[in-house]
Write a structure and sequence with these properties.
This protein is α+β, with helices and mostly antiparallel strands. The chain has four helices and five strands, in the order ααβββαββα. The protein folds into two domains: 73 residues; 93 residues, Alpha-Beta Plaits (2-Layer Sandwich), CATH 3.30.70.60. Helices cover 55% and strands 24% of the residues. Strands 1, 2, 3, 4 and 5 form a five-stranded antiparallel sheet that branches.
Length: 212
């Protein structure tokens, strides 16, 4: 490539030479701006956006990490509370023993039982209600003492449908017939998976491994 000769510029006036020089500079600056500066600027903006997102994510991660010990402590407390609640729900094996305890509390309160009949168990989400229809005879204070003893038991037992009637006077004591329903609760354990479900899960795992 030959040398570019700018001798022809000498024939122009200083104003024209200045204008031509400005035009050349403008072309060079425009080309630099369009082909180099603008692409670099756009790339810089993208990098700044990525940096801001990364900084925000880092900040959120730090906040979560700072709260992690507190969350772990809360989860631990909830697990303990859940275990305590489960301890108040007798399992099916404990129900007969619990019923014997209730009858003993009634007799210790000087009450006689006309009816003590567990009825149909009502299944809920993760627990079941175990209702017991009870009819006792005794003084008002004996019934109150019996209810107090039931409520102080470690297991949850609620009293519903409390009714008084059949007033009699025997040996100087006011004898009442009291009917109510005592409801205790039992935890429902999830049934173990059947053989078909276990085989189905194994087949799915094998299919996933083959796809990989």
């Amino acid at each position: 490539m030959g040398n570019i000769n700018f001798d022809f510029l000498h024939s122009y006036s200083p104003l024209k030479r200045a204008l031509i020089l400005l035009g050349i500079i403008a072309v060079i600056v425009g080309a630099f701006t369009y082909f180099i500066y603008i692409p670099k600027l756009e790339k810089l903006h993208k990098l700044e956006t990525k940096l801001k997102k990364a900084q925000l994510k880092l900040h959120q991660t730090k906040l979560i990490a700072a709260q992690l010990p507190k969350l772990e402590a809360e989860i631990k407390e909830l697990n303990l509370a859940f275990k305590k609640a489960l301890n108040k729900l007798p399992d099916n094996k404990e129900i007969p023993n619990l019923l014997l305890k209730i009858t003993k509390l009634g007799k210790d309160s000087k009450l006689s039982f006309d009816l003590f009949q567990p009825t149909q168990i009502r299944n809920k989400e993760f627990y079941a209600e175990v209702p017991i229809d009870i009819v006792v005879k005794g003084s008002y204070h004996a019934v109150g003492h019996f209810f107090s003893q039931i409520c102080s038991m470690p297991r949850i037992i609620n009293i519903y449908g409390y009714k008084l009637g059949g007033y009699n006077l025997a040996d100087g004591d006011d004898i009442l017939t009291t009917s109510f329903q005592a409801v205790t609760y039992t935890f429902i354990e999830a049934p173990p998976p059947s053989e078909n479900e276990t085989k189905g899960k194994k087949k799915k795992k094998r299919k996933k491994k083959r796809k990989r």
